[in-house]
Design a protein that fits this description.
The structure holds two protein chains of two kinds. By secondary structure, chain A is an all-alpha fold. Helix content of chain A is about 55%, strand content about 0%. In chain A, helix 1 crosses helix 3. The N and C termini of chain A lie far apart (about 30 Å). The mean pLDDT of chain A is about 90. In chain B, about 20% of the residues lie in helices and about 30% in strands. Chain B has helices spanning about 5-10, 30-35, 85-95, 120-125, 165-180, 190-200, 235-240; strands at about 10-15, 20-25, 50-55, 60-70, 75-80, 100-105, 110-115, 135-140, 145-150, 155-165, 185, 245-250, 260, 265-275, 280-290, 300, 305-310. The radius of gyration of chain B is 21 Å and the shape is flat. Chain B starts with a helix and ends in a 28-residue tail after the last strand. The mean pLDDT of chain B is about 95. Classes of the chains: A mainly alpha, B alpha+beta.
Chain lengths: ~100, ~350
């Protein structure tokens, strides 16, 4: 594995660990991180978080990474769909100039 | 794009889902039996449903099961295994002194209604109250069918459990009501629905190539109880923690090879791929070694074709942008759909 790929995976894994800690410890979505697969839907038919959970999730993730996770004018929180989409959004926000 | 797929993406589509078996489990100990055999925690109230699995001992999926709790009766919507096989398994697992009756409801079938404006079609038939129906809950319609809101195709979705004759009546009634509110209603095939599931990384039990993966590797850990025991659960939990993992990918060309490599090293296999229905290139699903199973890995290849892993969904589902309280199909141009 080349250094760029390895660094990318390390970065994503670290962000994932923080998000999973929020979902397990703060939101108590599941007792086990393995029960929250990275591409499983957090809302709806997947892990069935509700709109109150989404508000808390946004606040906690924004606080953990010091970013703006969702555009407050955007009624569609697409970034919250899965752990991986949250990681994508965190990386985009961190890399923004 | 097929007409059925176009309808699921843009308006609404009906589908006959005859491949889904309906199994009824009833009796004083029905809950105990299902809790022992199914993977999920069965905390269900009357009118609620839950996604579960029946696993082989090695953690591979025998059947994809949606459990509906209707008072003291449980309805199982079963995909991936014959109803008779599931019934036989449950009957064999029944304790000698347990009061449980398991029956395959051969006379019942399943019809689907999916799409960003599926709710508008159903509301035209049943009233606007259906708009508030929570996900994974169901009600009994006036005509007799059970109506479950679940959505397995990335859009608003409902499944109806009903007799064959009721199915014909319901399809006719929904078509008439769709016409009355101006929603184009298509007919989606099983292939159309499988494409939607692929593009949304929704588990499709019949997909070839994934039969050697356990439920954890298939990213179904959310359907696995963290603390109870059931056949295959321990193996699936191990897979969720440390096995391979499915990822979605994009490619620019058709694939002739299913072996995925990073340089010269074999790191996984392609489970499914299709031409993208909404743009150029290929979309697909692969199982990769755990350390590489992340989005954004661009150094992979299958044969001569480069792959790039991406986060699903691979499309912008329009249901995310439609608010049933404010929008209608006829006003869709004002919604700003992607």
């Amino acid at each position: 594995m080349d250094a760029v790929t390895a660094a990318w995976i390390t970065r994503r894994t670290a962000i994932a660990d923080t998000i999973l800690r929020i979902l397990v410890d703060d939101l108590q979505v599941r007792p086990d991180p393995a029960g929250i697969p990275p591409d499983a839907a957090l809302f709806g038919t997947g892990l069935q978080l509700d709109s109150l959970d989404s508000l808390e999730l946004v606040v906690l993730v924004e606080s953990a990474f010091d970013i703006e996770l969702v555009d407050r004018d955007d009624p569609v929180p697409v970034a919250l769909r899965t752990v991986n989409t949250i990681i994508d959004r965190v990386i985009t926000a961190q890399d923004a100039p | 794009m097929s007409a059925g797929l176009h309808a699921i993406r843009n308006s609404a589509a009906l589908s006959r889902q005859g491949e889904t078996a309906v199994v009824r489990v009833t009796g004083e100990h029905a809950w105990d039996l299902l809790d022992r055999e199914l993977t999920c925690d069965l905390y269900l109230r009357d009118g609620q449903a839950r996604s579960a699995l029946l696993l082989h001992e090695d953690g591979r999926v025998q059947a994809d099961v949606t459990v509906l709790c209707a008072d003291e009766t449980f309805w199982l919507l079963v995909d991936g295994a014959p109803g008779a096989g599931v019934s036989a398994r449950l009957t064999a697992a029944r304790g000698a002194d347990e009061d449980v009756t398991v029956s395959v409801e051969e006379g019942l079938t399943v019809v689907g209604l999916d799409g960003p404006f599926a709710w508008e079609v159903l509301a035209a038939l049943e009233g606007r109250g259906v708009i508030g129906l929570p996900l994974m809950s169901f009600f009994t319609m006036d005509r007799g069918p059970l109506c479950l809101r679940d959505g397995r195709h990335g859009e608003f979705g409902y499944r109806f459990v009903l007799s064959a004759s009721e199915a014909d009546d319901l399809l006719r009634a929904l078509s008439e009501r769709a016409n009355s509110v101006g929603v184009p209603l298509g007919l989606a095939t099983a292939r159309d629905r499988a494409t939607c599931m692929l593009e949304n990384h929704v588990f499709c039990v019949g997909r070839e190539g994934q039969s050697d993966l356990d439920a954890g590797e298939l990213q179904l850990g959310w359907r696995l109880s963290a603390d109870k025991d059931a056949p295959g659960l321990a193996a699936a939990r191990r897979g969720a923690a440390a096995g391979r993992r499915t990822v979605t990918f994009r490619a620019d060309e058709d694939l002739a090879d299913t072996v995925v490599q990073l340089g010269d090293v074999v790191v996984g296999s392609v489970l499914a791929w299709e031409r993208c229905s909404h743009g150029p290139g290929i979309v697909g699903l692969a199982a990769l070694t755990r350390e590489l199973a992340h989005p954004g890995i661009g150094a992979l290849s299958a044969g001569d074709v480069s792959l790039r892993t991406v986060s699903p969904p691979l499309i912008a589902n329009r249901s995310l942008y439609v608010n049933p309280q404010h929008h209608r199909y006829v006003d869709r141009d004002a919604i700003g759909l992607p």
